[in-house]
Amino acid sequence: MLNENQPPSKSLGEARMMAVGQEIRQFISRQYAKVGPVLNEKAKRLWAGATALELGYGGVAAVSQLTGLAPNTVRAGMLDIQDPEIQASPRIRRPGAGRKPIVEHDPTLVADLLVLVAPATRGDPERPLLWSSKSLRNLATELRGLGHRLSAQTVSKLLKQAGYRLQSPRKVHEGKADHPDRDAQFQFIANQRASFQKAGQPTISVDTKNKILVSNLFNKGRDWRLGEDPIPVNVYDFLRLADGKAAPYGVYDIAANEAFVNVGQSHDTVEFAVASIQGWWDTFGRARYPEATRLYITSDSGGSHSAVSRLYKVQR
Questions:
Q1: Apex CA 310: angle with CA 276 and CA 294, to 5°?
Q2: What Å distances lie between residue 277 and 58, 251, 253, 307, CA to CA?
Q3: Chain center to CA of 302
Q4: Which is nearest to 154 in space by CA: 104, 102, 107?
Q5: At what angle do helices 59-67 and 41-55 cross, to 10 degrees?
Q6: Is 244 helix (H, G, I), strand (E, B) or coil?
Q7: Is the pLDDT of residue 41 over 90?
Q8: Could you tell me if 109 and 148 are in contact, meaning their C-beta atoms sit under 8 angstroms apart?
Q9: Does the N-terminal or the C-terminal CB of the chain have fewer CB atoms within 10 Å?
Q10: pTM surpassing 0.85?
């Protein structure tokens, strides 16, 4: 029969906590608040185990309550702190510990992912990613729709494990079959250039870039400027808002390893090319090659830029 004047009995955990003095509990709380944020999982476990061993009776309950660590973690730390091999090991967890890979409890995940990243025009035309971008976020969304639970970061890891890499297209196909004398043609060009250079005659390489709009427009790239003071530009780059078009043309002196670039507005590439070469000769070439009697020009010619066009021959 219970005595109403007798206080209720405390639980075993509370009784063990009372075995640790108030000053010691405050000390443990202050210490963990200082070192806890910078310790990894292994270091926290070892610190908690060593502290519990020092406290003795009630140490596990006290450390668990004051640090928020699970009692089993504190007990594991008590065992690890007495094992020299675990203390010397660089591993944070024992082999086999920690969360299992997602593919172990979701065996169809990789197969579904590889189906999504396969070429969209191959196989079933009703694939879910036929008309959507194959970004990591979209792949994760589609996989979640198939019943898988994962994040975009997990998709990235799985793709890398499967041999996928983030790659940009590579220009390798020229459209037409290679000319049977392609190597011989390039060898002839190289020999001619070497012959001109050996004789002290100028050899240049010329090329033009796409026409660009001239106006206060946005261009990729950054400049060093003081403070937060970016250059304001137009929101739109419509042709009607531009002041005109300009075409850059470059002349590269192969022997001197120097380039001459000018900008013009000519709509005819051949006329502009000849004028650019004349500008290079008047500015640099004449003084650099005073004994020159010939000029060797290499260019990526074709269409209106063709070296065999009548206008090119007339202009030069």
A1: 55
A2: 91, 7, 11, 13
A3: 37
A4: 102
A5: 140
A6: strand
A7: no
A8: yes
A9: N
A10: no
Are the beta carbons of 223 and 229 closer than 8 angstroms? no
Which class for 295: exposed (0-12), middle (13-18), buried (19 or more C-beta within 10 A)? Answer: middle
Query: Following DSSP, what letter does each residue of 252-308 receive, concatenated?
Result: EETTTTEEEEEEE--S-HHHHHHHHHHHHIIIIIHHH-TT----EEEE---GGG-TT
Q: How far apart are CA 37 and CA 34, in angstroms?
A: 7
Residue 114 CA neighbour count, 13 Å, CB half: 11
Q: Write out pLDDT tens, residues 99-122.
A: 677 877 888 988 888 888 875 434
Token pair of 51, please?
């502290």
Q: Residue 247 belongs to what H/E stretch?
A: strand 244-253
Under DSSP, is residue 23 helix (H, G, I), strand (E, B) or coil? helix
Rounded distance between C-alpha atoms, residue 47 and residue 30, angstroms: 14
d(CA 61, CA 183): 81
Tokens (6 digits) for 40: 């990894």
Average pLDDT, the chain: 78
Q: Which of 39-43, 98-102, 306-310 has the highest mean pLDDT?
A: 39-43
Residue given tokens 């593919």 in the structure block: 103
Residue boundaries of the structural domains of the chain: 12-88, 106-121+129-161, 196-219+231-315
